[in-house]
Amino acid sequence: MSKKTLTLMSKDKQLFNIEEHLAVQSVTIRNMVKEDGASSVIPLPRVDSETLALVIEYLNRQQAPEEDEDYVKKFVDERGEIPTLLELAQAALDLDIKKLMDAACMKVADLIKDFTLEEVREALRIENDRTPEEEKAIRDEFQWAF
Amino acid sequence: MALKEQSITHPQERREKLNALQQTLLKWTSSSVYNKVYKSSARRKKHGEPYEDDSNHEDNGSSFLEQKRISNLIKLSTSLLKFITDSRTVGRANEHQETCLSFTRQYVEFVVLNLRQHSHGQLEFSKENLKETFLCLKSSFTYAAKLLNLDLTSSSEASPPLIEDHNLANNLFDFVISVEEYLGSRYGVHTSYCFCTRHRRVGQFEAGGLPALASWGMRPLKPGGLQPWRVGHTAKPAAFTMEVLSEVLHGVLVDWLSAIRLIYGFWFDYSSDQIHDSMENTIIPDDVLCNILSQLSAKPLMRFRCVSKHWNSVITDPYFIKSISHRRILIPSGLTGLYAFNPKYQKIVKLTYPFENQIHKCNVIGTLNGILLLVLEKYFYGLRRIFILYNPLTRATEKLPDLPHPCCHWDVMRCAYGFCHGNIITIKYPCDCHFSSRDKYCNIFSLKNSSWTVQKTTFTCYDFVHRVGIFLNGFLHWVAFGYDDLDNLLEIVVLDVTEMVAMRMDAPRLTIDCYNAHTSVLGTLHGCLCMSFMWRNGFDVWVKEHSEWSKQYSFVLPFYRYGCPNRLDVTILEDGRILVKDEVSNQIILCHLFEHYYEIFKCANEIRVTSRMEYDEYRYTHLVGKPFEYVESLAMFGKNKLAYIE
Fold first, then answer.
1. Chain-chain contact of B298 with A145 (C-beta, under 8 angstroms)
2. pLDDT in tens, B78-106
3. CA-based angle B268:B269:B273, to the nearest 5?
4. Is the whole model's pTM more than 0.80, yes or no?
5. CB burial string A97-129: b at 16+ within 10 A, e below
6. Which chain A residues are closer than 8 Å to B259 by Cβ?
């Protein structure tokens, strides 16, 4: 039986090949293959090439199902930087790969859980649009959490 | 006697009056605002052309005013919708179902119309305004969907959903599409996703929803698909019956959505979308953000409400909290405070609460919507009691008003509590009640009115084995020792909470030396009363069905080969689970009756209910509360808010 190959295209127009039976772990790709056989290139306009390379590395894993959980954990642990993980999570969201998405999000949550507010804003590039008064009100209400 | 009658009818009357008041208010608001919204949108339709001329003359003033007016109207309607939905949830607005629905429908239509105008350039929202408006739209969508959900779940074959329900469902689809089309894809996907996941469970759609969805799926396939969306409801395929559709939609919808989401991404050119740029400071998609936040524990979650407004709105979204909240078991401990225990994570967390540094015995009387009702008891020249509301997730507390006579010299054994229909019932006897024929009273605290009332009751004297009663089918049940009985036999006291009449019920017939009285507990199993008795190395569960007790389950804990330790506390949780707290070896054993297996959780050694000295003294053993199961929520207190909790 010959293995079919699919081609994925990242945001910066780089092409990646992947075998079909591995690619269909992504629910989105599975649906597309079902619909039109997906003979052409599948464009992923929101995923950059570095992230897509990671996703493909993940999809290409050769793991027994029972070791899968550990593998996903290790996989995201090795790439423990928040921006990378967020990109990965977004790509996993677009491609609908639940395990990868959950693992990436869990890792991010794990990293930021002890951060101060400023550190969180910096790490996730979030603008502070709260006034000091509003912040103080929440601080007062939930003193135990700070 | 007259006094007594007054005390009974008074709260009822008041409740009725309040009901009537609220209903009038509801009717008035929905119909008048409905007229206003409807009329103004009609007016715009009529005067559509002059407006267009105006904007061509770059009359910024009028378009600014118009924009302001619409965004205000949207805000107003959103809060009204919230009010309507809340009232429906409490079941106040059943008679005005149709008015409520048509108001919601009109509002949704109004929004769709305006969004279309926005895209045509007749109406320009500024960027800041747009973001605000979108937040409003998002929440009003949630409320509308909730309203619809309420209707659909309450409908049955006997009372099919109204036509208005179908219209509203269709309009909500339009709404999703309009948001998607005119404000940018991220918003549309978010709202629609919420909608569809919520409605998959109900699985009832009207046929008209299909063309709308289909056109939504098709539209992005056309690269130049920026023409206004048009699907007439005339295209409604009448041949589809609701049953067929619901089945189809049930399974397909979510898969389909993810596909649509991706296809959409291909054709939508993000860089050219100006609106998208202005929202760029929220880099993380909501789905990712929700997933990240859902992994956090309560402490960082509450802290991160300060990160940004958006994070706060995500965290305080009731649906978000509902999706992440877990069942937890609260373990009160007399000496060291409160602990929350989650079997899933095998983690036992210490909670903080006020008064914890004073020596109090803590009992959980009940829980509603994630809020626990605690009574703290202190023995100091008599019994002092403090009632507090406590939310373990937010750690918020509120002290309830004191009992009319907070400190009295009652015997501590003769106090009991119960919780039902939003009322706390406390029962106490004077020490000499055995000898006197004085009337017995109980105090009732209504959470709604936040006040205590006194009612006469017919209790004879009992020593309660556990303080907190089990509420089932309109009756509160306690295990107690009857005083009149010379044998001191264990029996069950039953209180009819409407009439406040007490009765006694026989406990299962066992020989008295088989069990230790304070290891016998009441609980419920499949809606029946059940009772568990500890044996040498296990326990039996008796269930009362058709007014007969029968032994239905027997559970052996093999590691208690040489007999159970004295300090063992048994609690019957829901779904046939029994929690055994072993204070000697500091572990919690969770037994699953139906599946017949048990789990053991080791805990830190400070989880003790009583000190050794106290424990040896029989009368203190049962004064400390039993573990209690609750579901986390962000529910708040306050007189008005509590009314909606029920």
1. yes
2. 877 777 777 776 665 566 677 777 777 77
3. 105
4. no
5. beebbbbbbbbbbebbbebebeebbebbebeee
6. 28, 31-32, 35
